[in-house]
Amino acid sequence: MNAMKSLAVAAALFAAVSGADAERVEKIRYADFSSWYTREITESKVIGGKRKTIYEVAPSGHAAGNKPYRNLGGSPWATSNVYAKVSGIVKGSNSVAPVKRGGNLVARLQSKMEEVKVLGIINLDAAVAGTIFLGRMKEPVTSTKGPFTNMEMGIPFTKRPKAIQYDFAVMMPNLNTRTRATGLSAKKTLPGRDNAEVYVLLQRRWEDSKGNIYAHRVGTGRERYARSVPWTVGHRLPIHYGDITKKPFFKPYMGLLDGKKAYYAYNSKGKLVPVHEVGWDPAGTAPTHVLLMASTSCGEPFVITEGITLDIDNIAFVY
Fold this sequence. Notes:
Helix content is 6%, strand content 50%. It is mostly beta strands.
């Protein structure tokens, strides 16, 4: 009997320790990409007057009309799909859409050319990358200059996950060139292949009396994909805390974001301003915000390798 009791106690202790050490996977809301909200944008007659369907990661629904979109149903996600009105001309752009994989809906991101034919005569192309991110898009987009200025990048977040997890595949065309196309001038071919990428960045932000926003980097996870990757379930991207610049895995693109690389956020005055990353916080620091993005491009705006495709699903934090 004593032996049986000892075995029972040992089993209970093992279960308690195993439970304490067990991982916890916490899905991000709407990151199973099973529901989508569609919008119908009617483009200006001068560029053909087509009706374009634009998808948003949100509760299922539909709306028609050229109206700015605001995140619906508590969705934390924004996309590169936009309603633009530049110099009075309305254009819709869609580079993110649902597709089926194994019977389930996933998000498909694509690098593509948005073709515009003005008055049926002049052809203009704009290079568009497929992107999803935690944050909001400011609509309508009124300029092709500085696309980051239309994006509120990041959401409030105070936890310290050890990784993000997702299912994904990359389809990479057999090209070693990129194309620059702003929609305002002729396309230009550039050397080198663009990469798809996924990243998660944790920041501790603060604002000064003038409304400027600054941040220290708390945690970093960033991967780029230069070749095709078959459908992979449960891929883990580790988050590294503290200053990682001396770590063997560090790459320059994992560094601080400031200047032209700075993302934007709304300050307390309601103005969208750059977030200046000015340093690294110690490894034990709690963040105030998380930035999470998946994209078919890692370079400068309006420069892509046409045809790069990233399918992604089931994005979650791992603790």
